[in-house]
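hey all, quick one before standup. I had two proteins in the batch that finished overnight and I want to keep them in one place so we stop losing track of which output belongs to which input. First protein below, input sequence then structure tokens straight from the run.
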Amino acid sequence: MTPEPADLSVLTSTWPGSSVLAIADETSAIGSTGDLDWVTRIASISKLFTSYACLVALEEGTISLDDPAGPHGSTVRHLMAHASGLGFETDASSTFSPGTRRIYSNVGMEQLAAHLEAAAGMSFTDYLVEAVIEPLGLIGFEASGSPAHGMRASVNHLLVFGRELLRPTLIAPETLAQATSPVFPELRGALPGFGSADPNLWGLGFEIRGNKKPHWTGILHDPTTFGHFGGSGSFLWVDPSRRLIGASVSTEVFGQWAVDGWATVNTVLIERYG
């Protein structure tokens, strides 16, 4: 059954735990269920906020995409695009050289934040708060913890950020366009929880849907859709072709329920609102 615009609870009724879900346009939430102000762990969606702070730093000239960072031969560009050769949770390089394989890496994002911290001469958390969180008015957003997976936020925080990703105010539209376009577009790799993808499209911190199958967004999403999901059972997507944002947080950690359920729910959201 397709839900009425104001009530999406039917979509999440089969998910374990409790979830907050919303879809929004450029001005407001147009469908939602749950407490949109509930602050909880967003896990790897943290990477999007870390990446956005780095985009601000790029425009300020604090760092550059060609700065050496990470393992030998790697740059800021490689770290942001998960193409440095670093493993998922280890700072030891994998068997792949930079720029040869898309390897999703928490430690790579942490090294990116450390590089910005050293270049800016201030803690990464302080930089993130001053460059992104405060300008967007994200009161109650918790920016401390790992820049790869440690932040806490509400669905309303994610929707505000999503609107920034539709109509940027903190960086130039050209910078955002570069960040949400494929970087090293030929690289294959694995999308955690969903299997291998060839190519596994990624921008500068933003995962790009492309034609990946299976995928956590819906089958009706435009290939240019970008965003991220988190191990806390959270996701944020932006479909620039439809000017829509989808966001969810959950009490249930990522698992097979999300693999099975997210794509279906996101397809219905596009059917109803897209």
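OK second protein, same deal, sequence then tokens:
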Amino acid sequence: MYDVIIIGGGPAGLTAGIYASRARLKALLLEGMIVGGQMMTTDIIENYPGFSQITGAELSAIVDGQAKGFGLTVETGEVTGLEVAGGQELVAKTAERDYRAKAIIICTGTEYRKLGIPGEAEFTGRGVSYCATCDGAFFKDSNIVVVGGGDSALTEALFLTKFAKEITIIHRRDALRATKIYQERAFANPKIDFLWSSVVEEIKGNQTVESVLVKNVTSGEMREVPTEGVFMFIGITPKTAFLKGLVELDESGYILVDEENLQTSVDGIFAAGDVRKKLLRQVATAVGDGATAAFAVEKYLEERGIT
């Protein structure tokens, strides 16, 4: 029996682990893949206070070491469901075993949204990617396509210029949504071109990606664009499928919480970071959430006399 189980090892989960462990709570962090979350797939972080530039992997390693140094237990396990067992007991279920705790903090974050078009699933890993830092080096001297117009699309496109010969950013609107500094850098980069008011309808190829079929949303005109790689950055969806029917979610699947304590609609279950409904999703705001949630858990346990 743990005092608190933290589900998800991104910046919110790791920070919750630091604060919970410093409070001498018996804390377990469960991460389904790799500790660090989306930080691990970020090339350069330049807006986290205290670091003018640091890679996501470096920052993840620092925070992971800090949390473990305070006594946080970290295990690999994909949580498939939560259960209220009665009394003050909560259960986090994985394929391997069940874990029991007096409180739970959900920090599962988000994942990249998929287009759901023909060829996307078939060519994933064979030219279709959702992570430039993971796969960019495979596209040295290639012509590639980036789909999207937000911060992720532009930062990943800029990273890909280290490898690719030419990058075409395909955006469904006639203007970008990204932060102005990213727009300035993208427009100034000679390797980056733009295909405006356009959407990808199909990804084509044989063994690997060879082209994309693109539709102009204004004229309806279709054109085939040769490419060796397609990188998708069209938004994110919260990783909350395992929670449906248990805690209250908004229409997009984000967890609704009490803004003061970050408690969900279920007593003893809290949520922090990108997985909850909020205005801004950044490492800095995830860290703040993690600290708040862990502190709220400590007070929750004290007030109920179950520490």
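Flagging for whoever picks this up: The first strand starts at residue 2 and ends at 7. The mean pLDDT is 94.
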